[in-house]
What does this fold into?
Amino acid sequence: MRAFLNEDETIHYEADDDDINAKNSGFENDYSNPNHGDDQSQHSTFHENEAHEYHCNNCGAVLITEVNTTATTCGFCGAGVVLSDRLTGNLAPSKVVPFTINKEQAQEAFKKWCRKGRLTPNDFMTADRIKNITGLYVPFWLYDMNGRGEAEATCTRVRTYSDADWIYTETKYYNVYRKVDLNYSRIPCDASRKMEDGMMDKLEPYEYNGLKDFNMPYLA
Ligand SMILES: [Zn+2]
It folds into this structure.
């Protein structure tokens, strides 16, 4: 950039070759290039007879279990659910965050949490409720995103100072040009309509380190 002083004593900055080159190498060129297209999204699918789908008649939840499960209860409302012959969709998870605690540890944690609440009703912690603690996998989409943009602005920096006779105002002008190329990978997005959003937020931050390739035995 080159600066010079005008007669009105404001300083102007002119775009130099670097600015012009940056401006001319805009993203439009990238978009017109077919090699810069979006990546195909990647999905895994279930094989035939690999998983069973359950529909809860009581609350409408859709649950997927491994194929050997013959009867189960709805993880959302506790009602018995009906086995469906085949999956209505065939999308399968590609990754899974396995449980890091077992049922006994979950029961223990629940009891400990109940003891903290002074107003917890006595029957809240009954053996029956604790016995029914079950694990539940919640589906999440993981999105990769790319965002590109350009911003151009004329900015000013104003300074006022004075001596005995005069008040001076100095205004500096400068061009700002920014090219932004942002890549986000694996943004988690709750894929279950039945799960309460507030509860899902409590799972954050998403446990990327625990991600493992999905295998049906995880559902057993
Ligand atoms: Zn249900």
Summary: The mean pLDDT is 78. DSSP finds five helices and eleven strands in the chain. The pocket of zinc ion is lined by residues 56, 58-59, 61, 74, 76-77, 79 (CB under 6 Å).
